[in-house]
Design brief:
354 residues; mainly alpha; globular; 69% helix
């Protein structure tokens, strides 16, 4: 599997340098072939080859603990029951989710990006492994969220709402995507100041382990948040909380990207009209990551993972920040290579500690 991932990443990276020279027909064919490869890699992996596969095996055969069972979405139950009725094993579940999720992502990239192979390289360097090979339910929801962002910016809000609503049937956290209906694609200076303050204040809250949910009356605490609290109190979240911020180089890279995007937002918007919305959504992702750490490490990390899918938009847009274009691609792909290597190491260590 490691070799397959490396070949996939290298293929995307190579094609990204020459995608402007490709004929439209050839670009579509190569894009589809890469998508098929991604489906096969994610769908044919064995239990134990990536984090969370053993948990999904327990959930698939309905042997998981009661707390996790309460958090399972209806589509997971539906897909699992259909596959079990056909006497298929848990590997069929992985393949089913890959068939659903990968095409959704590819469709979103094709709509949002003028350089789909650069975007695909960024996606494979981290988000593909995180969503399609670990958090498979959230992976589908994240792809639908990208489509929702596209239609929201294109002033088709009903379609955007429908995609977010559909996403909640795959992962309840997708409901957070409704935040886009409170955001506008303008970014005046006063908003830049507020957005710039979110991370430093959040770092103080994060390292102080403040539980901000204590200011909310218990009767207003939703079932999902109550479940996260229960997981925290019983120590179950320690198995699912992800990597601590202190050693997570990927988060720090996203923080640097966030501030660079704010500073160059006016210029980047000339090349990608989804930038301002992406910046604001990333700000919400940081709020979950940093401010909700004391509430639940799982909640903070998972919500950040879901919402920060917009970093694909920001990383792609950053290519326009440098000239000539080939230099910008070299810089972007170098960063993607670092991110890919860090992700591979992180998952390897996760498997060792499982």
């Amino acid at each position: 599997m490691v070799l397959s991932l490396v070949l996939l990443f290298v293929s995307c990276l190579f094609l990204s340098f020459f995608e402007e020279r490709l004929k439209h027909r050839d670009k579509v064919i190569l894009y589809v072939l890469l998508g098929l490869g991604m489906i096969c890699i994610a769908g044919l992996r064995a239990v134990g080859s990536t984090p969370d596969t053993e948990s999904y095996e327990l959930m698939y055969y309905q042997k998981s603990n009661i707390i996790l069972a309460k958090a399972t979405e209806p589509t997971f139950e539906l897909i699992s029951s259909i596959l079990r009725s056909m006497s298929l094993g848990v590997n069929a579940l992985f393949f089913a989710y890959a068939i659903i999720s990968v095409p959704i992502h590819l469709a979103a990239f094709w709509k949002i990006s003028k350089m789909p192979f650069i975007t695909l390289t960024i996606y494979v360097s981290y988000y593909y492994m995180m969503h399609e090979m670990v958090q498979i339910r959230a992976g589908v929801a994240a792809g639908l969220f990208l489509l929702a962002i596209y239609y929201y910016v294109e002033k088709k809000k009903a379609i955007a709402f429908a995609f977010i609503l559909l996403g909640t049937t795959f992962h309840y956290s997708a409901a957070a995507g409704l935040v886009i209906f409170f955001l506008r694609d303008r970014l005046p200076k006063w908003q830049k100041v507020i957005l710039s303050m979110i991370v430093p204040i959040g770092l103080v809250v994060y390292f102080s382990h403040i539980d901000i949910s204590r200011i909310i009356p218990d009767e207003l605490i939703g079932t999902k948040l109550a479940l996260y609290r229960e997981m925290r109190d019983k120590g179950i979240e320690d198995e699912h909380r992800g990597w601590p911020l202190e050693i997570n180089i990927l988060i720090w890279m996203n923080i640097v990207l966030y501030y660079a995007s704010i500073y160059y937002s006016e210029y980047l918007m000339k090349h990608c009209k989804y930038v301002n919305i992406a910046i604001k959504i990333q700000a919400v992702a940081f709020i979950f990551l940093l401010y909700f750490n004391g509430v639940s490490k799982v909640l903070g990390n998972r919500m950040n993972d879901y919402l920060s899918i917009v970093n694909i938009i920001l990383w792609t847009a950053s290519v326009y920040a440098f000239a000539p274009r080939m230099l910008s691609k070299i810089i972007s792909n170098t960063i993607s290579a670092i991110r890919f290597f860090a992700s591979m190491v992180a998952y390897a260590l996760s498997l060792l500690w499982m």
